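Observation: inputs received (chain + nicotinamide-adenine-dinucleotide).
Thought: call the complex predictor directly.
Action: predict_structure
Action Input:
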Amino acid sequence: MAKESSNGDQHTITRPPPTPSPLRFSKFFQANLRILVTGGAGFIGSHLVDKLMENEKHEVIAVDNYFTGSKDNLKKWIGHPRFELIRHDVTQPLLVEVDQIYHLACPASPIFYKYNPVKTIKTNVIGTLNMLGLAKRVGARILLTSTSEVYGDPLEHPQKEEYWGNVNPIGVRSCYDEGKRVAETLMFDYHRQHGIEIRIARIFNTYGPRMNIDDGRVVSNFIAQAIRGESLTVQAPGTQTRSFCYVSDMVDGLIRLMGGDHTGPINIGNPGEFTMMELAETVKELVDPTVQVKIVENTPDDPRQRKPDIAKAKGLLGWEPKITLREGLPLMEDDFRQRLAVPKKQNN
Ligand SMILES: NC(=O)c1ccc[n+]([C@@H]2O[C@H](COP(=O)([O-])OP(=O)(O)OC[C@H]3O[C@@H](n4cnc5c(N)ncnc54)[C@H](O)[C@@H]3O)[C@@H](O)[C@H]2O)c1
Ligand SMILES: O=c1ccn([C@@H]2O[C@H](COP(=O)(O)OP(=O)(O)O[C@H]3OC[C@@H](O)[C@H](O)[C@H]3O)[C@@H](O)[C@H]2O)c(=O)[nH]1
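Observation:
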């Protein structure tokens, strides 16, 4: 049996998907979907849980080891009859009965994924293997949150899904970007060999409320710095570009991908592209025009440019982002001001 994936390749499936548990066909289970979100206490994961919980037919199980996530992000759901939170590390097997798996567990900020690179690669490889094993056992559909970092320091611009990337296999970022590349490979091998229903999202830089204030990624750094009246730290040369997607758009894209018919990989991101200097100037203008911008040293292998081609997401999922950077930054500023307890000055 051959099935066409969304990037046009023919993938031979040697075995049909395993039969789901008989409970899936009982009246109750037909009406309800039990959904696992790994990394559910993190930034994107907790927003995804919020959105999934809005549907009264969903039961959500969030799993997290709290390395970069926090129970606080899910506090409004703790004790809810349709919600469960499990402290668990995905490098260990997990036995639950679910219909869908959103597999997000993995530190995403470079300072955190480089902190313990061996653990990062174990999370990407062993963690994804464990979640695929779970999907295989229970017949669940599984979505992996891969990353634009699979394109490395891209030589093609903007990046289409067909581009194979330009990745340093032995650099300090490799635990994350090569880890995600192997995770994608595992997804397709389980799909071809075992007939598992897979979905792969290649997420481009995402920002929004609830990011860790000390997360270390550029948008959260600049907003926190501007609120605290500190200089905005633009890493040299400042001409490198990124494309920033607001978190509600991202969650909408992930849910559409899970519900649709296409395996992916599909880029999910906002094609609006900015240099880091432009981002700093925009944050300065919106948050506090009196703060300074300073150039600081960069880290090795920083990609010089990044912008998603989202033709596939538009055509296959009917998805495109709605929130511009200028609309999203103030929403994030409000959340950061609340958490830092620094109200906006009247004259700002
Ligand atoms: N935010 C982005 O810009 C972006 C871009 C590309 C891809 N992604 C991917 O999206 C996913 C979520 O990213 P995020 O921005 O919400 O990051 P995040 O760090 O806020 O969330 C990751 C969550 O995974 C948990 N986690 C990490 N290792 C784990 C393990 N071994 N077992 C169980 N839980 C573990 C963390 O505690 C955290 O709650 C990640 O897979 C990331 O690679 C994010
Ligand atoms: O304070 C800072 C932090 C970062 N930067 C720059 O901002 C750019 C973006 O850096 P970030 O740390 O936010 O994130 P990166 O784009 O490097 O990696 C991200 O890519 C996509 C996801 O997979 C992950 O969330 C993360 O790896 C880089 O060019 C970096 O040099 C600054 O100029 N100042």
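Thought: report the result.
Final Answer: Residues 38-39, 41-45, 64-69, 89-91, 104-108, 123, 127, 145, 147, 203, 205-206 surround nicotinamide-adenine-dinucleotide (ligand 1) (CB under 6 Å). Residues 2-206+245-268 form a domain with the Rossmann fold fold (CATH 3.40.50.720).
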